[in-house]
Please model this.
Amino acid sequence: MSDAKVTFEEWLGSVSAAITGDSLWKMEAYLLTMFASELGWDDVTRLSQDRRTVVLAGQLYRALGPVGANLAEGYPRGTGPDRARFCEYALGSARESRDWYYKGRHVLGQDVADQRIQLLTGLVRLLLAMVHQQRGRSLREGEEAYDA
Model:
């Protein structure tokens, strides 16, 4: 299902049970990045049809993919700092994607670009909170007393 006008709810209903059955699917940030990638497919196609934005299309495509891939790779990591590192990678790619959408607004249209930028801004906020949570967890010592 690839359509620039697809709603989040319609898209959710189209995702394979092989993906939705994974515990990773419970992570809101992962759902949002997968949806952003779905929308990005048509956006990249549109951008690549205009000579002026062919390179931009490739950059957007390469930025959107790693957001979810890094979350998926970091999800099973055993330690907070390790998970935080993959969240930071995803955060960088989400911000880069947002930047490319802003630059592509002349071809995509302001409304489409604004919608994608808003989606990615929400994702950036979630990722920032996840990084803080994972880093915070790793920086705090437990309250248990230790005997020497």
